[in-house]
Amino acid sequence: MERRTLSLPGWKTFFSGFDWRSFYRSKTAVICLAVILAFILAAAAYSIANKTVVLQVDGKASQVKTLCGTVDDLIKAQKVTLKKGDEVIPPLEAKLKENMKVVVNHALHATLIADGKTSKFISCRSTVGDALKEQGVNLSGKDIVYPSTDQRLKEGTKIRVVRVSVKEMAEEATIYPGVVRETDPNLASGLMRVVKAGKNGIEKRIWQVTYHDGQEFGRLLASSSVSRSAVDRVVAVGTATQVSRSGMNIRFKRALDVVASAYTYTGHNTSSGTPPGFGTVAVDPGVIPLGSKLYIEGYGYATALDRGGSIVGNRVDVFMNSYSQARLWGIRRVRVYVL
After folding, report:
1. Start-end of H helices in the chain
2. Of 23, 83, 173, 276, which is most buried by a Cβ count within 10 Å?
């Protein structure tokens, strides 16, 4: 098989027959060289002028490729609006350089509430903490800031500084005695008798009191110690359910000591709907239920059938047949047995 070789005779003929000496001496060669040189110089100038910088506006950074020569040109090219009080770093007249960082912080209006005063200020700082430093507000380790110091400062932010202090406070607290109950078969059921009076004790307490802006916010018990122990109170509790009165043995459920007054005819029936008569007693139903059968020392047997507005607690009102008898009874302390 015959092997053929691909050739480009046209180009070969052109280059071999071209008069390069005449071309170099011609005006065309001079123009071409000038164009090429201008292109090379333009490319070099573009390469030198084109820079990559970082533009940070209010904390947000972005990488920008620019031909601008100054910071001012860059800000205008990026359409960043400046107003009075805004902060630009480096200054507007500074020349841009490769990898330079340009920071723009817009001035923000804020309110500061601290140390009992409210003031308004303008700041270009990015965080609440930096704004407080700028305003000369020193914080202790316990002070509280709302919003927190790491939060970004925004237009109209209200910053509140709460001054926190902790102090120790000592006090003496009363330790109340316990009650020891002992049964007494000789004492009527429902009654109690003090056998031994108790005595209060004293406890010394150390509190850690936290103050917010001078006002107590909370307290924590740091330590306590007993400087005097309390003495228990001993009480005898009656268990007897039978008593002898006027030669009669009276069995009862419970007894109670009351203040007894007397009343006579009022023209009205009792709360139970019955007309009053001797043996009718007004009571506090919360203490003695209506309908209860009673034995009242100095009066005799009775029934709780009535109530009165002034008969509250351990208080009863016994019925007498006449006003003179009621006056003679008066007001006295008596023992009532609930049968």
Report:
1. 9-17, 20-25, 27-49, 71-77, 128-134, 323-329
2. 276
**Which structure tokens are listed for 204?**
């010394």
**12, 15, 32 from 18: Cα distances, Å:** 10, 5, 17
For the chain, how many residues are written? 339
Per-10-residue mean pLDDT, the chain, length 339 = 48 51 58 62 55 88 90 89 88 91 92 95 92 93 93 94 95 93 89 91 96 94 94 92 85 93 88 89 94 94 90 94 93 94
Distance between CA atoms of residues 69 and 87, nearest Å: 20
Nearest to 167 by CA among 202, 146, 204, 142: 142
- Give me the domains of the chain, ranges plus CATH numbers: 51-105 (3.10.20.90), 108-162 (3.10.20.90), 167-236 (2.20.230.10), 241-338 (2.40.40.10)
233 in Cβ contact with 178 (< 8 Å)? yes
pLDDT at position 39 is 60
